[in-house]
Every structure is written in C-alpha cells, then in structure tokens.
Amino acid sequence: MTAAVKSPRFAIVDIARGVAIIAMVAYHFCWDLSYFRFIAADVGYDPQWVFIARSILAVFLFLVGVGLVLGHGNGIRWRSFWRRWLFVVAGALIITVATYFVFPQSFVYFGVLHAIALFSLMGLAFVLAPLWLPIVVAATVIALPFFHSDPLFNQKAWSWLGFWQVPPPTNDLVPVFPWFGAVLLGIIATRLVLASNLSARLAAIAPSGRLPRLLAFLGRWSLLIYLIHQPILLGLVYPAASILQPQVAMRDTDFLRSCQSTCEAGGTSAAMCVTYCQCGLEQVEANDLWNAIETGMVTAAEQELLDAQNRQCSAVIYPELNSAQ
C-alpha cells in the first residue's frame, strides 16, 4: 500500500495567504479603532466595511479548500491533518473563552477558526470525490440561504447553520450556509488547476523579491498570526484608549450624526437640521446631559431640561415658535 503523498508546495498560494492575513489584520485593527471610538466609522455594520470583511473571509475560506487539495489530494494524510486540525480547534476554544470574558454579550462561539475546523472535516469528503459532487453541493450551500430562513436559527444554538432572520449578537459568526461553499469553490478550483497545464506554470512561480518572500513567509504562518494578532492589537489600542479617551472626543460627532439623521427623517431640510443639532449639542454640554443621552436613564429634572432644549432649538429654526410661546 502506497502512503499518501503531499502535492508540491505552490509559492503563489503562500503569497495569497500572506496577502489575506495582512488584510485580516488591517481589518481587525480598524475594527478595534472603531470599537474604542478612535475613528467614526462603524466597522462592524457600515455596508462598505461589511463588504470588505466578507471579501477577506471568502478568500480565507477559499484558500482552506485549496490547502485541503494540495495537502490531501493524493490521499488523506491523517497524521498531518489531525495535528493541524487540533491546533485550529485549540485556537477556536481560546478565542471563545477570551471573548466571553472581554465581550460577554457578544462572545465568539462560531467564528472563523471554529468554521475552519468544521469545514476542514467536511471538505475532506470532497477532495477525492467525483468533481461533479462538490460543484453541486457548493451551488446548493451558497444558494440555499437566499431562499430559506426561519426564526429558529436566530438562536445561538442553531445560528451556526446560517438560516437566521436576525443574527444573534456576536463579534464573529461564520455559518455553514453559505460559507462552506467558499471552501468547496477552493477545492473545485484547485482540482481543476492540478488537472490542467496551468499547474506546472503555477508551481514554477518562486518569490524572488523581498516583498513576495515576506508574503510567502507570512502565508506559511498565517494560522499562528491569526491567533496572536488580536491580543497584540488590543494590547496596544486598549491602553491608548484608556489614556486618550477617544470616546469623549468622538461623542460630539456621534451626537450630531444621530441628530441629523433623526431630524431629516422628520422632514426638516438638511441645512435647518444642522442648525438645530448644533444648538442641541451646545445645550447638552451646557446642562451636562451627556449621561442621560448616553445611558437613556433620564431623571424628571433632566427630562424637563431636554424638553426645554427641544423647544429652544426648534425656535431657532422656526422663529414663528417664539411668537407663539
């Protein structure tokens, strides 16, 4: 019986992993800056940031599929597979425990590493299967969430499958549907490449400059980098936030943005809303109402001040209200 043999290493794949891990680190750095209010963007929810995050995730999972074929396409190398798989599982458990203590309301219970661990196991079934099978399954896995959802999957216990209507609160959730489809696409693409003349040309690509060599090095250690990069980033950003108090400096911007949106939604012109909201900001600062604004816990006296503020600022943009009082 012939032992399973690993396919030749493709430097271009390591380089791609290196680019992907740099993109992931950069995104998480921006997320940290947003969370601690160093920047105004809401990285977790703004559509353009969500698109960036999903694009990076898709590349990562695609490369998981690529790695499965390159590592096990000539036969499953079980010892190597389990060694790497246990490392991923350990990393996933560490992330769950750490985020539970840091973000108890939104801890990560099925994030990127959890998904990679499960998807790697599932993906093995398609590495040596007839090629039509991963093609059919990939199309199904990717398409099905667009046609089916159910409130049952809003619960954490079932949300990892991906058919929710409202996702549960968590800082990272990578469900089976549709994301396992990205792994399958990586498997399909790599099998097609290995069966073609393109394989030899890609295998011949070798990093010759400093940047390609650096990217290839980062790609070979991408899993370790993924595990350690957030603790390092938080170790820098959190103390800086404690000292510089960026949330205090940013709250004026947040107040004006929220006020402007609410004011315009009520039918008032943008220019008049700017004046109204600036007036409101001045009154909040003058009457020290930040705690009431930020917590929503308003005393009777604070409510009187807020009502008076609303009347005063409304009169600024609608002078006729002054004569009516």
UniProtKB/TrEMBL annotation:
Keyword Coiled coil: no
Keywords: Membrane, Transmembrane, Transmembrane helix
Domain Heparan-alpha-glucosaminide N-acetyltransferase catalytic: 9-231
Short name of one Pfam family: HGSNAT_cat
Residue intervals passing through the bilayer: 12-29, 49-73, 85-103, 109-128, 135-153, 173-194, 214-238
Keyword Transmembrane helix: yes
Record's protein name: DUF1624 domain-containing protein
Organism annotation: Devosia ginsengisoli
